[in-house]
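pasting for the record
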Amino acid sequence: MRWLTFFLLLYFATALQAAHLGQWSEFGYFHLEYIFMLAVFYALFAEKDAALLACFWCGLMYDLTGQSIVGLEAILAGMIALGIVSIRMHIFRSSVLGQMVITFLAVLLFLAGRVLLGHLALYFAGRPVPIINGLAYAGVILSSSLYTAAVAPWIFRALFLLGDMLGFDMQHRRGMAR
């Protein structure tokens, strides 16, 4: 894996995320999770150790650009990457449907875990969040997960156009067009 390419892609994904490119609503509904989409891509297609480290870096970038507890997103992204890496040989990861399902579940778990752990931290700090806020977050989480999952296979195909610049072994991909 080529780390320089990864960090450039991570920088680009962070810029797109900060610019809210592709967001359909001002209230947070239907926004693309570019950084975590990059994390899912690397978890699906990079070597195991490189994939886990890349996903941790993606989570750390969330931590550095967000307003949450430092380390929360990095640990969540690493745990979700560990799950994806452990099941990726049992799925047809080159399939559009497989990529959509994995991306949907990963983004859903990531966003739900981030909100849940953030609310728990506020609760233990003595500032509980009203239940109605949790219900509003559920709509944002579900809509963003669906939207990101629908766009992810096309972003993955665009990333594969980079070819050798990614540093992946492309010869052993089953079902990939050559």
